[in-house]
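DATA SHEET
Item: assembly model
Revision: 1
Owner: S.N.
Input lines:
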Amino acid sequence: MFLPAGSQDEIGQTVDNRSKAYEIFRQVMILRNYKQISTPVVEFADTFTNEYAGMNLQNMLKWFNREGEIEVLRPDWTTAIARALVKQHPSELKWSYQGSVFRRDKDGIESRQAGIEIVHTPVFLGEGESLLTAVQYLKELNIADYLIELGHTGIFDELTAPLQLSDQELDQLREAMHDKRRDVVFTIVNGKASKEQADEITAMVDAFGSFDVIEEYEVKWKDNPRLLEIIKHLKKLATLLTERGVKDVSVDLGRVKNLPYYCGTMFRGYLKETGATCFSGGRYDKLYEQFDESISAVGLAFDVDVLADHLHIEESYERICIIAEEASHAYAEELRHTFTNAIVDIQYTDKDKEKFDRVFKVIKENDEYKVVEQ
Amino acid sequence: MKPTIALTKGRVEKQFLKFFASLSYDVEPLINKGRKLRVETDDFLFVFAKGVDVTTYVEHGIADLGIVGEDILAEFQPDVYNLFPLPFGECRMALAKEKGKEWPEGKRRIASKYTNITKEYFKQKGESVEIFKLEGSVELAPILGLADGIVDIVETGTTLKENGLVVTDEFMHFSARCIANRSSLKIKRNELAKVIEAFQRGLTVK
C-alpha cells in the first residue's frame, strides 16, 4: 500500500519529540494564562478564501459536499479562530491552540502548529506578550540560537500611498518587495514617481538588520510622523526582547504582508542552525472586519515539526525488563509499579534483554512467586 | 562556515566565471575543477547543478546564493529572494512558427519546455491552446507536426532560423540573476554582504 505524495508515517523519536513539543507548549500556555481553543478540521472554503482572509483555494485540500459547497481541511488556524472567537465573550483575551494545518504549497501536506491569539488587548501589551511567549517557549525547549525579526505593514502602505498605483500595480510592487527584486521595484516606482522616490522605496529592499538599521531610519524618517511612529514602535519591541535576553533581534523594514489580513507589526523567528522558520505571526485586526467587529488582534504560530526536529531529548529513565509468563503476568504487573520513574516492560522471553539496563525474572518457588535479578 | 553558492552549469557558468574574475575573485579552482560538482575556494563553497536544481538547493537552504537564468525563475517560481540581474545570460522568450505557414483557425498546438510561461502568456491573451511539454530540441515539434508553434528562449535566433522557424512575438526579456535563500540572507547577512555588494559593483561598472 502506498501513501499520497506529501503524506508519511512517522515513528519513534520524531513522534516523541513532537509530543514533547506539544506538552511543553501546553504547560507554558497554562502558566501564562492562555485558554485553549480548538476548531474543526473541516471548514467551508469561503472562511479562508473571502476577501478578508485572502488565501488561495488552489493550495487547499478540498472537495464538494452534498449541497455542492466547497469544504476544505483547515489550511490556517488564525482565520478559523477568528471565526470562532467572534462568538466568545470579550473578557477572554488570550487563546492557545495546537493541531495540524493542511496545504499543498508546503513541503508535506500536513504540518503541525501550536499558536496563540491575543484579542481586545492594547497594542504593545498584545505584541509584547506574543513575543515573550515565544521567547519562553523556545527557552523551555532548550533552543537558544535563534533570530527574531520584526516588520511592519504600515511602512509599505505609507511609502506607496502618494504613488496612486492601481491595485494590480500595487500587487506587482508588493510581490517584487517580497522577493527583494530591486530592479523591478525601482522600475515600477520610477514609472509613477520621481527617481528620488523610486530610490527611497528600492532602498527598503536592503533595509534589514539590527539596531543600526533602526537608528538609521529613525533619522531618515524624522520628518514623517507615521513612519517615525512605526520605527519607534519596532524599536520598543526590539528593546523589550533584548531586555529579556534575546541575543539576536533584527528588523526587515522592506517586509510586506503575504496575506491581506496583516495590518501592523509582523514577527518571524528563525533557528540559526538550520535557517528554518520556527514561528511567524503578527497583527491582524482587519480579519475581524468581516464580522463587523473592530478588534485588536495579534498572534503567532509555531511550526511544531521544525521545533521537534530541533529537539534533543535526553532520556534519563532507567530501562527495566521483567521476564514473566502467562501465569505470573499479574505478579509482574504488580512488581512493575514498584519501579517508579523507570521504563518497565514485561516480556515472556529474554531475547531482548540487551536493550535494558536491568533484567528481572519472575520464578516460582514453593508455590510462591519471587523475583531474581539476571 | 563559508557561504555556499549554487551555480548553473554550462553557458551561465562560463559567463559567471568571467564576471566573477572581473570582480577580482580567484576563479582558478573553479575553472580547473575537472568533473567535480563541489569546489571549495578561499571564500566560498561552490556547487554546480542544472538551473532548476540551483533554485531547489537555494530554496531549501543547501545553498545560500544561486546564479541562475531568469527563465527558470519565471517558469518554476521558487520561493527565494530574486535579488538582481547579472550582466550576462541575456535572452528573450519568443513564440515561433514554421516560416511560410499560417496559424490554424482552431485551437493552436504549442510545444515548449516552459509550459507555465506558455500557459500564462496565452492566458493573458485570452486564448486557449493545447500545450505539449518537451524537454529539449523544441524546434523539432512544428517540423515533425507535433505542434503548430513553439514557445522557447531565443538568444541570437540562429537555431530557429536554421530549422525554418520565424519569431511571431517576443514577450519576456531575461538575464542571469542572483538569488538568495530567504533565511540565509538574514542569518548570514554579514557573510553574504561582501559578495552581494561586489556583484552589485560589477553591475554598476557595466
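QC remark: Chain A touches chain B through 17 residues (CB under 8 Å).
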